[in-house]
Amino acid sequence: MTLSTTVPTVKLLINGEFVESQTSVWRDVVNPATQEVLARVPMATPAEVDAAVAAAKTAFKSWKKTSIGSRARIFLKYQQLIREHMKELAAILTAEQGKTLADAEGDVFRGLEVVEHAASIGNLQLGEYAENVASGVDTYSVLQPLGVCAGITPFNFPAMIPLWMFPMAIATGNTFVLKPSEQDPMVTMRLVELAIEAGIPAGVLNVVHGGPDVVNAICDHADIKAISFVGSSKVGTHVYNRASLAGKRVQCMMGAKNHAIVLPDANKEQALNQLTGAAFGAAGQRCMALSVAVLVGEAKNWIPELVAKAKALRVGPGKDNPDVGPLVSCTARDRVESLIAQGVEQGAKLELDGRGVKVPGFEQGNFVGPTIFSGVKPGMAIYDQEIFGPVLCLTAADTLDQAIELINANPNGNGTAIFTQSGAAARKFQEEIDVGQVGINVPIPVPVPLFSFTGSRASKLGDLGPYGKQVVLFYTQTKTVTSRWFDDAASSGKVNTTISLN
Ligand code: NAD
Questions:
Q1: Per-residue model confidence as pLDDT tens digits over 126-150
Q2: Residue 147 has what DSSP assignment?
Q3: Rounded to an integer, what is the distance from CA 285 to the centroid of its chain?
Q4: What are the residue boundaries of the structural domains of the chain, listed by start?
Q5: Binding site membership of 212 for ligand 1 (Cβ less than 6 Å)
Q6: Which of 3.30.460.10, 3.60.40.10, 3.40.309.10, 3.40.50.300 is the CATH number of 259-440?
Q7: DSSP 275-309
Q8: Rounded to an integer, what distance in angstroms lies between the CA atom of residue 419 and that of residue 275?
Q9: Ligand 1: which atom is nearest the Cα of residue 460?
Q10: What DSSP state is assigned to residue 8?
Q11: pLDDT on residue 502
Q12: Which of 156, 286, 456 gets mutated to test ligand 1 (max ligand atoms within 8 A of its CB)?
C-alpha cells in the first residue's frame, strides 16, 4: 500500500474534539479516476476506540434525559446545513468514491431524507397506554434508548449509509460511535462536522476509523449495546455472530444479487431504460443494483436494443457527470475483470465487453464499461457471486412461474423488480416472490424513511431494518409499567398470594 505524507489526515472525533490519531498504521484515500492521494486515514488504536466508547457512555447519562424537542431541533438544523452544503458534499464524495456528481447528490439526498425523519422523532418514539388492565390498574409502555450504539459502514454510499445510522440512533436518545469505510471516509467526516455544527453535544457522536481490528473491538466492547452494519455478506455474517455472542443487538444489511423479470407485455422502452440505469448506474456498485435480468418469452429478442443502450452510456470521471464512473479501487476493477473472464470461460455469451475501456486524460482510472452476458446460468461464477461492477447477466425463462422460481432459489433477498403492463402478473409476482423489497416497474425499490429498508434472506441478518419505523424499535428497549394508585380511603383489604391483579 502506498503512503503519502504530504496530504491531510482524516481526524477521529472523540468527545466533541476532532483529533489526530496516535496510530502508526495509516491508509491512503485515493481518487478512483486519477489515483491521486486525497488524504490519509488512520487505523485507530485500541485506546482510541476505548476513549470514543467511554465518551459516548458518559454523554449518554445526560443525552437520554434531553427533551424530545431539543433532540428534534438539532436534526431540523442539520437537514438545513446538509441542504446548504449539498454541492460541496457531492464534490468530496465524487473525488474519493468515483460516482458521478449527480449520483453523489442522490447519495446525500437519500441520507438527508432520514435526517428529516429523525426531526420528527416526537411522533415516532411513542409508547402505549391501557387503562384498567385490572380494576384500578393501568399499564403503559415507553421506548427507552439503549445506551452506546455503533455503526459500521461500506464504501458504496459514504453519505447515505452513515445517515441511515447515527441520526435515528441519536434522535431516539442513544449516543453513537461511527466507523466509516476506510476507503472513502472524507464525505462522512464532512457530514459529521455539520452534525456537530447543528448542535450534537460532545460525546453524543464519536468517530473512529480503521479496518478489521477496529470492527472487532466494536463487536467485543462491553459498553456497546447495539451495532448496525452495512457491507458485504462475509463481513456482515462475521459481525453478526461476533457481536451477538458478546450480547449485543445487531442488524446487518449485506450483499445481493438482484433480479428483474421482464415480461413481453412490458413498456419496452421504459423497461430497457430502467434496466440499463439500474444495472450500470454507480458502476454497478449499489446493493440494490439490478445485476440479473430474466427475459420471459419474446422479451429475449430485446437483447440487441439493451446492448445498444448500454453501449451508448458515457464512461468517465465522476466530476464530468458521465453515465458511469470508475470502480472504487484497482482491486475492485481487477476483481470485476477477473469475473468477466470467468464468465467467458464458463460459457456465458459476452454480448458487450467493458474491459479495457479508454478514458482520455484518465488513463489511470479504475474504469470498466458496461458489460452484458447472455445465457447465464446458476453455477457460473458471474451468477453465483455478487460482482459489484457494471455487469448485467441475462437469462431467459418461458413463463413468469419459471422466472419466480429462479429468483426464489437464489439465496439473496435484497431487491427485485418486474416490468409488465399486466396488473395480474404484477400482483402474482408481489405475492409469490420471496424477496424483501419489490419494485413494480420501479427498478431500485429502496423505500423512503416513512417505511424501512427491508432486505431479506441472505441479504440481511437481524429482524429489524435500518431507518423508518423498524429502526425506532432497533434503537430502543420497550419498558412496560403497570401501576396502581390507592385512594387515601382504601385502607381495608388482605394479603393476596395469587398472581391475579384483582
Ligand atoms: P465490506 O464488507 O468490505 O466493508 C464494510 C465494513 O466492514 C467497512 O467499514 C470495513 O472497514 C469493514 N471490514 C472489511 N473487512 C473486514 C473484516 N475482515 N473484518 C471486520 N470488518 C471488516 O463492504 P464494502 O466493500 O465496503 O461494501 C460493499 C458491500 O456492501 C456489497 O456487498 C454491498 O452489497 C453491500 N451493501 C449492502 C447494503 C444493504 O443495504 N444491504 C447497502 C450497501 C452496501
A1: 999 999 999 999 999 999 999 999 9
A2: S
A3: 12
A4: 12-254+468-481, 259-440
A5: yes
A6: 3.40.309.10
A7: HHHHHHGGGG--TT-EEEEEEEGGGGGGHHHHHHH
A8: 9
A9: 41
A10: P
A11: 62
A12: 156
C-alpha cell, 393: 447477466
Q: Is the CB of 181 under 6 A from ligand 1?
A: yes
Number of H-type helices and E-type strands within the chain: 16, 22
- Phi first, then psi: give them for residue 176, nearest 5 degrees: -140, 145
280-320 tens-digit pLDDT: 999 999 999 999 999 999 999 999 999 999 999 999 999 99
Per annotation, catalytic residue among 149, 287, 330, 393: 287
pLDDT at 399 over 70: yes
Instruction: Please spell the DSSP secondary structure of 92-128, one letter per residue.
Output: HHHHHH---HHHHHHHHHHHHHHHHHHTTHHHHS--E
Backbone angles phi, psi at 107, to 5 degrees: -60, -50
pLDDT of 233 higher than 90: yes
- Rounded to an integer, the average pLDDT of 215-230 is 98
* CA dist., res. 322 & res. 396, Å (int): 31
The stretch 411-421 carries a mean pLDDT of 98
pLDDT band at 4 (very low <50, low <70, confident <90, very high): low
pTM over 0.85: yes
Pick the CATH number of 12-254+468-481 from 3.40.605.10, 3.40.630.30, 3.40.50.720, 3.90.550.10: 3.40.605.10
Q: What is the dihedral of CA 145, 150, 156, 157, to 10 degrees?
A: 30
In testing the pocket of ligand 1, which one of 181, 182, 250 has its CB within 8 Å of the most ligand atoms? 181
Q: Is 211 in the pocket of ligand 1 (CB under 6 A)?
A: yes
154 lines ligand 1 (CB under 6 A): yes
As beta bridge partners, residue 14 has 17
Measured torsion, CA atoms of residues 382, 384, 386, 391, in degrees rounded to the nearest 10: 20
Protein residue with least CA distance to atom 37, ligand 1: 254
Q: Does 277 score more than 90 pLDDT? A: yes
* Mean pLDDT, all residues of the chain: 97
Asked if residues 283 and 388 have their Cβ atoms less than 8 Å apart, the reply is: no
CB neighbour list of residue 289: distance below 8 Å, 6 or more residues apart: 256, 258, 278, 279, 281, 282, 388, 444
- Please indicate whether residue 97, judged by its CB atom, sits closer than 6 Å to ligand 1: no
3-class DSSP state of 409: helix
Per residue, the 3-state secondary structure of 327-372, as one string, reads CCCHHHHHHHHHHHHHHHHCCCEEEECCCCCCCCCCCCCCCCCCEE
Please say whether the beta carbons of 250 and 227 come within 8 A. yes
Question: Which residue is associated with the grid cell 445487531?
Answer: 250
